[in-house]
Amino acid sequence: MRSGRSRKLKWPKRVALALALVLLVPPLAGAVALRLNYAGDLEEGTRTRGKDAIWLGHAWVDGRKKDADVVAFAEQIRGTGIKDLYVHAGPLEHDGTLPADRYPRARWLIDAVHREMPGIRIQAWLGDVLATEGPNGLHLDDEKSRASVVASARQILDAGFEGVHFDLEPLLSGDRDYLSLLDDLRELTRSRTAQLSIAAHQIDPLPAAHSVNGTITGRQKWWSQQFFGEVARRVDQIAVMSYDTWMPLESLYGGYVAQQTTLALEVTPESTDLLMGLPFFHEDDWGHHENAETVAAAVRGTRLGLGRTDRERERFGVALYVDFAALDKDWEAYREGWC
Length: 339
What we know:
This protein is of the alpha/beta class. It has ten helices and ten strands. The chain has helices at about 1-35, 65-75, 105-115, 145-160, 175-190, 210-215, 225-230, 250-265, 295-310, 330-339; strands at about 50-55, 80-90, 120-130, 165-170, 195-200, 200-205, 220-225, 235-240, 275-280, 315-320. It is globular.
């Protein structure tokens, strides 16, 4: 009786062991790979090229910021590689329009920046939630809405901004309507000698990861590397939102950023500025662990990826997200590690 019972339990145990291996081995192997990706020496010459950017909050255009704030910020970025300011001037309405009262102090800011920070460009940061995971949001499949987005970009350039920076989320990999919108926006910005930049989703860490994740969760976190390249060819700057990665450890996060840097470099044309995002914010939730996603780890990962993939590339930098959440230690890590 004892031996018979033992035989009956063998199959459930084997199934449980097999299931455990299926669930645990791939993540463990991935973690080892990322940790190894974070190891190694940093190459000489993998520091700022003077093409960095920072996302700035809405307070800069709604009246809360004053002349003294501009002077203080000019001192804050002195000696860094920051070239572009992405100033929040939206959000867009769900039909693609942009009420002019969203940015009442834009002209003041533009004049103040040109006075205190010569050579710094100011781009309007516009965004909206896309109707990709529900009925509410901006519908890129609607031609009229896309035309309104282009009109909003024209409106922003008329206001004196030197470029327009779009952050539209969640944006599914392979979205042809988005590519069509970028084509129309590029035609406008080129005619105005202005910059077109976008905030980009991360690239599949494994082939077709975006499809698998979409099937399981109903959402897509990543873009395919091919789609990333298609987007990069249509813009002047592409800034990877290389944070909110789910990584639990600093070494894994740094290895992940190194991998993302390599994947992005492989498909971004030399004519486009590629920027890797740095987490200048502090939250703790399922997608972002502030003790893991540090500026120091992101900078080291960026430099490792750059050194291994395209050390001589000039049109490359980092983008700091976001000014109003940054701590002194974030600025120090950026300066010490990158500048």
